[in-house]
Amino acid sequence: MSELVLQAQDVAIHYGGVKAVDGVSLTLERGQIHGLIGPNGAGKSTVIDAITGRTRLTRGRVHLGGQDVTALGPTERRMRGLSRSFQRTSIFGQMAVRKQVELASHKMGVADSEADADAVLKELRLTPLADVTAESLGYGEQRRLDLALALVGRPSVLLLDEPMAGLSVKESLDLAEHLKALTSRWDVSVLLVEHDMDVVFGISDVVTVFELGRVIASGAPAAVRANPRVREAYLGSAA
Amino acid sequence: MSIQSISLGTVGALALGAAVAAFVNSGTVLSLLTQAIIYAVFAIGVGLLLRQNGMVSFGHALFFGSSGYAMGILLQLRLMPAEAAIAVTLAGMAVMAFVIGLVIVRVPGVAFGMLTLAIGQMFYLTASRSRGLMGGADGMNIDWPATLFGVSQSQLHKPATLFLVCWITLVVVMLLLALLLRSRFGSVTEAVRDNEERARFIGIRTLVPRAAVYALSAAVTGLAGLLSALNTGFVSPENLHWSLSGVALMMVVVGGYKALWGPALGAVVYFLAKDILGDYATHWMAIFGIALITVIVFSPTGTAGALARLVKGKKAAPAAGAPRVAARH
Amino acid sequence: MLGINLFNGLVYGALLIVMCSGLALIYGLRRVVNFAHGSLYMLGAYLGYSIALQTNFWVALVAAPAVMLALGVLLDRYGFRLLQDRDPLTVVLVTFGLLLVIEDFVQTVWGKSNLSVPAPAALNMSVDLLGAPVPAYRLAVIAVGALVALGLSLWLRHSKVGLFVRAASTDPTTTAMQGVNTDALSAGVVGLGTALAALAGVVAAPFLSLSPSMSSDVIIDSFVVVVVGGLGSLAGAFIAAMVLGMVQALGAVYLPDLSAVLPFVIMVAILIWKPAGFAGSRT
Description:
C: mainly alpha, two-stranded antiparallel sheet
C-alpha cells in the first residue's frame, strides 16, 4: 500500500442539534485522486472545512503525512502542505494576477517566490493574464486563479471544493485532465468534492459517497457505481 | 508605478514648486496655494486609509488638530527644542493611532465610520471644554521659536518660503508613500483589503497591517496639522471638528482615491471652486455636497479616475466601480 | 436638585426616542446609516418655526412632519432605492453629501444666528410634579416620546403593515417574493423616519432653541443610541435613548468634564465588543 498523505478518522461536526458530519473516516494515498460525491447538504463541503481546520471538530482526528494536525488552524495546516480551493471563488479582486500569486508564494515561505509563481501561472495557463486585475478576468479564469493561489509552495494535498462549478463542458474536461497530470508531475494528491458525475468517475482512483453526514459507500469507481444503495440514494437506478 | 515614473514625477514636481516660488509674486496667491497644499496632505492621509484598507474615516481631523495642540503644549512647556517637538509629535500621533487602530480596525463597514466620527468628536469636545493650557473654545497660540531648523521666523513666514516648505513636504510624502506601496507592505495590505479570509489563509496576519495603515494615514494627516500650525501659528477646536474631517473626505472622494495623487487633486478642486465661486462661495457646503453625491453616483473613482480613463481611452462603465484596466505596479 | 436633573434626562431621552426611532427604522429597512438624519431634524425644526410664525405651534407640529414625510419618500425613491445595490459606504457618503446640502440650505434661508421659539401658550406654565414645579411643556415632550414609543411598538407588533415592515427588515428578498411591495414599504418607512426626525425637531425647538449647529449636536448622541441599542432595533433604541438622556443630564451637572466623553466611550466599547450592537439587528 502506498503512503497515506491524508487521513481523517471518525470526524464529526455537530452544530447545536445538527449533525453535519457524523463519524466520517477518509484516507488519501499519495498520487491519488479521491472523489467525494453526495446530494446537497450531505456534508461534503463541511468535511473539507473540517479537514482544513476552517471548522472545529466535535470529534475525530486529522493526520497529514503521518502527523496529527487536529490542533492546528487552517494557516498552519496550509504551511505544512494542506491546501484548498474554495467553492465560491476567493481571490484578491483588485490585485493583478501575478502579484497575488507571488504574494501567496512569498507568504508560504518559498525562497524564490517569483519562480514559483511563474511556474504555477504557466501550469494553469494564466501567464498571458499575468498583469490583469483579478476582477477583470472571466469566471473560468478566476477559478483557475483561485486554484493557482492554492498551488503555490507545492502543497502535498489539495482539497478542491466543487472546482467544476460554473465551468463549461470543455473547461471541465480540461481541468479534469489537468488534475490528473498534476498528481504525477507535481506530486500532489487530490481530494475533490464534485457534482459532475462524469468527471468524478472519470478521473478518481477512489470514490466516496456521502449521505446525511455519513459515508454510505467507498471504493473503486466501478464498484461504487454498481452499489445498489448508492444507486438508490443518489444516482438513480438508471445510472 | 515604475521607479522611473516615480523619480520623474518627483523631480518634475520639485522643479514646478521652485518655479512657482520664484515667479509668483503675489503673497495672496502663494498663501492660498499653501493652504491648498496643507489640505492636500490632510486629504492624502484620509485617502491612504481608504485606498489601502478600504476603510472610510469620518474623524481624521482628530489627528490634524491634535498634532497642532501637541506642538502648542510642548512648546509652551518648553520641554524640548522645537525640532525635537516636531519629531515627538509625529511619532506620538503614529503610536497613538496604531494603538487605537489595533482596537478599531476590527470593526467592519459603516460601524467603523461611526466609530471614527465618535472618537473625533470626542477629542473636539474635550478641546472645546478644556481650561488652562489648551485655551478651550478660543484655542491656543503656538509659540514657534526664533529659529526653526536654522531658519529665522521672519524668513520662514515669507509666503514663498512657507509655500516651498509645504510643497516639498507634499512631494516627499507622495514619494515615500509611492515607494512604500510598491513594497511588500503595499501588497500585503491590498490583499487584506480585498479578501481578508483568503489573506489569513495564505498566512497574513490581518490585524497589524491594517492598524499600521491607520497609523500611517494618521501620521500623514498629523503632518498636515503641523504645517497648518506653522502656517497660522494657532490651533483651535475647529481643527478637530467633524466638518473638517468631512471636507477632507470630500476631497478624497471628489479627487479620487485609487490614485495616490487623487486627494491632492480634490484639494485643488475645492480651493479653485471656493475661489471661482466668489460670492456663491458661501454656499460651498451645498455645492461640495452636490459634487460629492454626483461623483459617488456617477464616477466612484473620482475625478482622478475619470481623468485616468480619459487618458487611457477606455470606455468602461463608471458605475461598475474600478475601471477595467490592467494594473501597473 | 437630583429630581430636576433626572426629569431633564427624561425629557432629552424622550426627544432622542422620537429622533432615533426614525434612524433605526431607516436602517432596518434600507440598511443605510443616515448621516443626514440630524440635518433632517434641524430642517424640520426650522420649518416648524416658519410655519408657526404664520399660524401657530400646533399647526406646525402637524405640518412640518407632513412636509418632511414627503421629502423622506422622495429621498427613498430617488436616493436609497436607486443606490440599493451599491456598497453601503457609498450610500453613507451620499447621505453625508445630503447633510451638507441641507446645512447650507438652512443657513441660507434662516441665517446663522440662533432663533428662539416660544412654547405654545397652552403649555407655557409650570405644573406641580411630586412637589416640584416643572415646565408643562417639558412634561408634554416626555408624553410625546412615550406616545411615539408605544405607538410604534404596537403598530409594528400588531398591524399588518407592521408585520410587513418587520419581515422586510429581516429578509427583503423573501418578503418581496411573498408579494409585498417592498419598494412602497421602504418609501413609506423612510418617509415615516424622516417625519419622526422632523417631529423631534419641532418639539425640541421651544426648549433647545434653533441654531445651525443643532444637527451636529444631536447626531452623535443619535449614533450612540442607535449603535448601543443595536442597529435596527427599536426596543434597544428606546432603552438606550432613555439611558443616554439620563447620562447626559446628570453628567452635565455632576461630571461636566467627563459627560462629553462618556457616551463616546460607551459607543466605542459596545462597537468593539459587539459590532452589531446590543440588541442585535432586528426590530
